[in-house]
Amino acid sequence: MPHSTSGHAQPRDPRGHGQSLVCRLINAYCHLMDRLSIAAAVLAAALLGLGVLAVCHMIFVRYILGASTSWQTEFCVFSISAAMLLGAPYVLLTGGHVAITALPDVLPPLPRFVMNLIASLVGLGFCIALAYGAWLYLLEAWHAGWTTGTVWNPPLWPALLPIALGATLLVTQYLAEIARARILPSSKGLSPRKGLSSTEDLPPSKNQEAR
């Protein structure tokens, strides 16, 4: 009985399979970093609320009860500073940072893409240096048992931990945003987000056209 050749499977291109695997890994990494940035933003909101409550408590104790305060001011500084640093990755994720777009708005898509890429790499380098210095400072404060030296005199390392975590998350979020903006050759099909690289005018990928 003759065999039909119409049902024979075509040989797969190993390069295409490798590219699709890299795309899935990049998509998974970006999704993970988005979740972590959102979780850090929720924690930042909670810390901001605690700082506000500490200020209200300080005002009540000092001006209503007429008593002295010891920990409220320092706790407020620590909590609000931690909220700012831990919320920074979410701001990068949503493109909520302050940006002057007078020049990028008048540039063609490709020069604007290159300019934003350079700016992103500069920001990434700064965040890497900040994270490296913050972790060194944190470890030194931990091993040396440093305190703040105030009346409350708590350990210093809890105040330094949000700096290290926030800078590290900024580094990983920057990497996710650069990958999402289709900087990597194999990252076609990732959905670019406005705000970091402004790739919305670039030709859409095949996966985006299929949607």
Summarize the structure.
This protein is mainly alpha-helical and about 210 residues long. Helices cover about 70% and strands about 0% of the residues.
Describe the structure in your own words.
68% of the residues lie in helices and 0% in strands. It is mainly alpha-helical and 211 residues long. The chain has one domain (20-206). Residues 187-211 are annotated as: Disordered.
Overall pLDDT confidence: 82
Structural class: mainly alpha
Instruction: Write the H/E string, N to C.
Output: HHHHHH
Q: In terms of per-residue confidence, which ranges show pLDDT below 50 for 5 or more consecutive residues?
A: 183-211
From the alpha-carbon coordinates, what is the Rg to the nearest angstrom?
Answer: 24 Å
Number of helices: 6
Distance between the termini: 43 Å
- Total number of beta strands: 0
Tell me about the biggest sheet? Answer: none
Rough outline? elongated
Kindly estimate the percentage of residues that lie in beta strands according to DSSP: under 5%
Quickly count the domains.
1
List the helices and strands and how they pair.
Elements: H1 14-64, H2 72-94, H3 102-106, H4 109-144, H5 157-180, H6 206-210
Structure keywords:
single chain; 211 residues; mainly alpha; 6 helices; disordered C terminus
